[in-house]
Amino acid sequence: MSVLKEITTTIQDVFSTLGYSLDKVNFVRCQRSELGDYQINDCMALAKKYRKNPREIAEEVASKLKENPYFSSVEVAGCGFINLRFADAFYLYLLNSMREDLFSNIDKMDAKKIVLDYGGANAAKALHVGHMRSANIGEALRRLAILLGNEVISDVHLGDMGRQAGMVISQLKREQPDLPWFQKDYQGEYPEIALTNEDLGRMYPEASKAAAESEERMQEVREITAMIDQGDVALTDLWKKIVRISSVGIQKTYDRLQTHFDLWEGEMDACQYKDDVLKVFDRFLYESDGALVIDVEKEDDAKEIPPLIVIKSDGSTIYATRDLGTLYSRMERFHPDEIWYVTDDRQSLYFEQIFRASYKTGLVPSSTFLGHYSFGTINGSDGRPFKTRDGGVMELSMLLDLVKEEVSKRMREDIVGREREEIAEDLTIATIKYADLLPFRGTDYIFDVSKFSELEGKTGPYLLYSTIRMKSLLNRAEDAQIPFSLALELKGGLDSKVVLELLSLPLVLEHAYQEKSLNEVCEYLYRLASSYNTFYAENHILTEENASLQKTWLTLTKVVYDVISLLLDTLAIKGPEKM
Ligand code: ARG
Q1: Atom of ligand 1 nearest to the CA of 351
Q2: Where would a tag sit more exposed on the chain, N or C end, judged by fewer CB atoms within 10 A?
Q3: Which residue in 523, 407, 518 sits closest to 457, CA to CA?
Q4: Average pLDDT, whole number, for the chain?
């Protein structure tokens, strides 16, 4: 149990000893620090329930809490708030507990098995900034869920079916018409295909431009796509090989983003479950314009939820069929408690349809929770979706280059060569991830490269810089053989403020998990780092003459360093030793 929860439970016990029952004590940070450190806000509600004066209840509770040595002051204010200040004894207890084990101030949850679907890159197409958001948010949620004690199975759900297959293959056919896959009477084994990711990066846009200009070409694209859906031997073999090449490139980008997938499955894998899905859906499907659809609307819908198309009029599968197939397979193989999807908010209606259809047909039992955690758009300074200077789509690789150029300018001059390159890479990823996770998941934000790369303020570089400084202080203390074990004494003021920040760690993690958004974690990281930095600027830890204060401060540095490292790791941000 976290120290925060321990102290909250103590307060709850006081209420119940006095005969007041509460589900949960509303114990929160005081908005105005001059009033107290934390505040209890329950007396007003209890007053209604027990028909008493709120101040009277507050006084009763306060007089009991005053006996507790962990509080240095307990005061009733306003219409029944209780404002509390923690005593040094409490701060030292918290600090020493966290020094022993960080998890003494983190609450584990009842473990769940969660399938997490994020990333969602499309084979043979460049990753764009939206795929990056899915990777950043998804990976952080994966790590957070694991940190809090859950079992997570992550799956990239590769977009390896659909129009891009027809596009790339139609292009290949023009460039290399003699390849065996294009020969009608070819009998032998198909070879490997000699294409690079650069080739693929060029071919898709070329084909897509050509198809936009010629209906004939578009028709060819559709035909190839449909043939692969129907399992044409030659084209399927060719496409699978192209997907494999593309996956290597995609994987490299995900590695750069520190993103880990337990499963590297895709839409193609889901096709094998088409018949299983149709069997489960059978009595719910009807024909509409030749397609097979299922109604998913409900009586109390505020807006129209159209039927979901499960099979297209030409009999082929679509995105939805593949998601349903994937759900079938996930339920069969993993029996998860929850399945989470992380995509942009334009897919919200789609997932609503998929979830409703799955519950209605029993494809997914009601005991399994399905959640779509959508995110907003990354915009340019004009407030419109982020574009390149010439108005083209912002591919992820371009964005990474842009940020790298900017963070490199702010690096120390004496870091050179390969090391410079590696550190610039770490800074780039930290800059992007922190900026991407700082706003609430659902909101759009403006991508401001120079602001995000600053060494001050709410930025990735500021946090990395802060941890480097803490680490160096700890190293110097070790070199100077300054012993530090238990924290024994506080000066009060700035050092206590840092410990006070440490107290709220479990609450921050709980909220982030509930909201499936890392914004509070990012804010907290900044608060913790800057309160530590303020303390650090005012005190000379290594030359402090009071040995027991010095011990406490080193312990404090170590715990803050460990908490920040843990949280950065949760955001999938890796820190360099210097910068
Ligand atoms: N490939 C899709 C896209 O680029 C995202 C996939 C999301 N996951 C899913 N199970 N549909 O939009």
Answers
A1: 11
A2: N
A3: 523
A4: 96
What percentage of residues in the chain have a pLDDT greater than 90?
Answer: 94
* pLDDT value at residue 393: 80
Q: Evaluate: CB of 343 within 6 angstroms of ligand 1.
A: yes
Give residue 398's pLDDT. Answer: 87
Cα 568 to ligand 1 centroid, rounded to whole Å = 27
**Ligand 1 atom with the shortest distance to the CA of 158:** 1
Instruction: Quote the tokens at residue 169.
Output: 């293959």
Centre of ligand 1 from the C-alpha of residue 120, in Å: 4
Give yes or no for residue 120 CB within 6 A of ligand 1: yes
Atom nearest to 323 CA in ligand 1: 10
H or E stretch at 163: helix 163-175
Q: Is residue 341 lining ligand 1, measured as CB closer than 6 Å?
A: yes
What confidence tens digit (pLDDT) does each residue in 108-138 have?
999 999 999 999 999 998 888 889 999 999 9
| 404 close to ligand 1 (CB < 6 Angstrom) | no
Q: How many domains does the chain have?
A: 3
Indicate if 419 and 552 belong to the same structural domain. Answer: yes
Write b or e for each residue in 82-109: b if 16 or more Cβ atoms lie within 10 A of its Cβ, otherwise e: bbbbbbbebbbbbbbbbbeebeebbbee
Does ligand 1 come within 6 angstroms of the Cβ of 164?
Answer: no
Quick check: is 104 in a domain?
A: no
Residue 325 Cβ inside 6 Å of ligand 1? The answer reads no
- Ramachandran region, residue 338 (left: φ > 0; alpha: ψ -120 to 50; beta: rest): beta
Tell me the three state secondary structure of residue 340.
strand
Mean local confidence (pLDDT), 252-275: 96
For ligand 1, atom 11: residue with the closest CA: 323
**Looking at residue 38, what DSSP letter applies?**
E
Both 427 and 353 in one domain: the answer is no
CB-hemisphere CA count at 13 Å for 52?
Answer: 18
Tell whether 402 and 511 lie within a shared domain.
Answer: yes
Top-confidence residue, 71 or 393: 71
386 pLDDT band, cuts 50/70/90, is: confident
Q: Is the CB of residue 323 below 6 angstroms from any atom belonging to ligand 1?
A: yes
Q: Is residue 116 included in any domain, yes or no? A: yes
Distance (Å, whole) CA 307 – CA 293: 6
- The C-alpha R_g of the chain, in whole angstroms, comes to 29
Rounded to the nearest angstrom, the distance between the alpha carbon of 196 and the centre of ligand 1 is 24
Q: What's the average model confidence in pLDDT over 504-527? A: 98
Q: Which atom of ligand 1 is nearest to the CA of 122?
A: 1
Output the CA angle 151-157-160, nearest 5 degrees: 160
Ligand 1 midpoint to CA 173 (Å)? 28
The pLDDT tens digits of the residues spanning 484-506 come to 778 889 999 999 999 999 999 99
Nearest CA to ligand 1 atom 5: 120
Which of 122, 132, 153, 157 has the most ligand 1 atoms within 8 A of CB, as the residue to mutate?
157
Cite the beta strand spans of 62-205 per DSSP E: 71-77, 81-86, 113-117, 151-155
Split at pLDDT 50, 70, 90, the class of 169 is very high
Range of the domain at 490: 396-570
What's the average model confidence in pLDDT over 331-351?
97
C-alpha dihedral, 183 to 189 to 195 to 200, nearest 10°: 60
Task: For the full predicted model, state whether its pTM sits above 0.85.
Answer: yes
